[in-house]
Specification:
Strand content: under 5%
Distance between the termini: 117 Å
Helix content: over 70%
Order of helices and strands: H
Largest sheet: none
Number of helices: 1
Shape: rod-shaped
Radius of gyration: 33 Å
Structural class: mainly alpha
Length: 76
């Protein structure tokens, strides 16, 4: 007669393999999510640098316009 402990061990092994497969799938999803988050952060940093550059440009232009206005005002 087959040993009932063998059938129990095979069931446990099958459950462990299934749990491992789920854990591997969860891990892959987490890695993918982390990579997506890093990509989004990189894009946000690039956008922030560009926005700061544009702001500096606008500030320089505003200062230039202000100086031009100062020169145009009649001195009393």
């Amino acid at each position: 007669a087959p040993d009932p402990r063998l059938a129990e061990a095979e069931r446990s092994l099958a459950e462990a393999r299934e749990a491992l497969a789920h854990a591997e799938a969860d891990h892959a999803a987490t890695v993918s999510s982390v990579e997506s988050t890093r990509e989004a952060l990189d894009q946000a940093e690039v956008a922030e640098r560009e926005a700061r550059r544009v702001m500096r440009e606008l500030e320089r232009e505003a200062a230039k316009q202000e100086r031009k206005l100062q020169r145009m005002r009649p001195k009393r």
